[in-house]
Amino acid sequence: MIKFQQTDSSDFLWSTLGGEGSEGEETKSAFQRIMNKLLGLDLKHKDIYPIYDYFHDTRNKTNYVFYGQIKSTREFNRLKQGNFSCITFHEISKIPFAPHSKQDVIVGERVISAKWREDAAKREEITP
Questions:
Q1: pLDDT score of 3 more than 70
Q2: Geometric angle at alpha carbon 122, from 119 and 125, rounded to 5°
Q3: H or E stretch including 31?
Q4: CATH architecture, range 2-126
Q5: Is the separation of the CB atoms in 41 and 32 below 8 Å?
Q6: What is the chain's mean pLDDT, rounded?
Q7: Sheet of 14-15, strands arranged across
Q8: Three-state SS string across 115-126, please?
Q9: What is the value of pTM for the model shown?
Q10: What is the rounded distance in angstroms from the CA atom of residue 80 to the CA atom of residue 119?
Q11: Model pLDDT, residue 11
Q12: Which residues touch 38 (CB under 8 Å, ≥6 apart)?
C-alpha cells in the first residue's frame, strides 16, 4: 500500500496517490499512465484491478480506485513532491488519512483480501 503526504499545511493528512484521466482515456489506462509517471512503475493491464468507483462531491466527478499488483517492493524515488511510503493494512489505523482516502483504503483492503482468498482457493484446487 502506498501513501502520500500532503505537505502544504501543518496539519497534514495522508492520502492515496492519484491523478487525472485524459479526455476519452480508459480508466485502467489512466491508472497505468499515472503510476508510471509518479513512480516509474511499468504495470501491465493484467496486473491492474478495479476496487470501486464513486461520485466525489467535492470534486464534482467520479473517482475510480484501482490497485496494481507488483512482484516485489522496491524503493520508489521518482515522486516529485511530498513524501510517500509503502505501508501495511495493519498500519492504516495509526495514521491520519483524508476521509475519502481512508474509505478508499478500507474498501481496497477488503477487495484485495477477497482476491487473495480467491486465488488461494484456486491454487488449492489445482494442488490437492
A1: no
A2: 155
A3: helix 27-39
A4: Alpha-Beta Complex (3.90)
A5: no
A6: 82
A7: 14-15, 2-5, 83-86
A8: HHHHHHHHHHHH
A9: 0.77
A10: 35
A11: 67
A12: 17, 19, 78, 79, 80
pLDDT digits 0-9 by tens, 8-60:
666 677 778 889 999 999 999 999 999 888 888 889 999 999 999 999 888 89
Rounded CA gap, 14 and 80, in Å? Answer: 16
| DSSP letter (8 states) at residue 92 | G
The answer for 16, left when phi > 0, alpha when psi is -120 to 50, beta otherwise, is beta
Distance CA 27, CA 62 (A): 11
Residue ranges with strand state E in 1-128: 2-5, 14-15, 48-56, 61-68, 83-86
Percent of the chain whose pLDDT exceeds 70:
82
Cell 476519452 belongs to: 24
